[in-house]
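Each field is set out underneath.
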Amino acid sequence: MLPFRWRPAHFLRDRRGIAATEFAMIAPFMLVAFFGTVEFCSAVAIDRKVTLIARTLSDLTSQQTPPSITVNWATIADSDLQNIFTASISIMASYDATPTQASITEVYVDKNGKATVQWSKSAVIAAGATQATLTASTTPLTPGNDVSNIVASEILVPQTYVIFSQVSYKYVPTIGYVLKTGVNMKDNSYTRPRQSACIVYNNVPNVSTNGGNCPQS
């Protein structure tokens, strides 16, 4: 005769180990929820930083001051642009800034509402770098190109200049449990020159051919 503890009826009433069984069933779902939440929160945080970088680039560029009170234009140099782009590293602090791709472009909207690139500069951030590296912007941001279909329609005010910044960032989570392939995040920002009518870079636009003023036609 079997001991009491091995009787079938007693076995059916035995609840030992049920918690471990339930945990084994629930654990995978808990892990997916946990890592998914971590990745989602990080993605949201970086998305906000991308927006902040775009706004910072256009805002700082638009704040260039004229060389005197008698002219309506201001100038910007490569060193200024490099410092402005480098601000991205501080903004992206606590996250890797290397995937950041950014550009700053000045656009002129003529009397017919056509937006044309005056000048454009891009930058990349190398791994571990403390400064951004300037690069030439490519199509469609090449000087002379019509970007009316890219610039927001409400910005196309005739005979005005606009500073247009674009930022992109590919977020690839460290864990990669849910967002395995990463997410491309992008944002644009528009700012009109604050203290002048236009911002001159490498003599573009050429103010000397317009009586010392920003060309408007």
Observations:
- The longest helix spans residues 18-62.
- Helices lie at 8-13, 18-62, 78-91.
- The chain has one domain: 20-210.
- The chain has a mean pLDDT of 86.
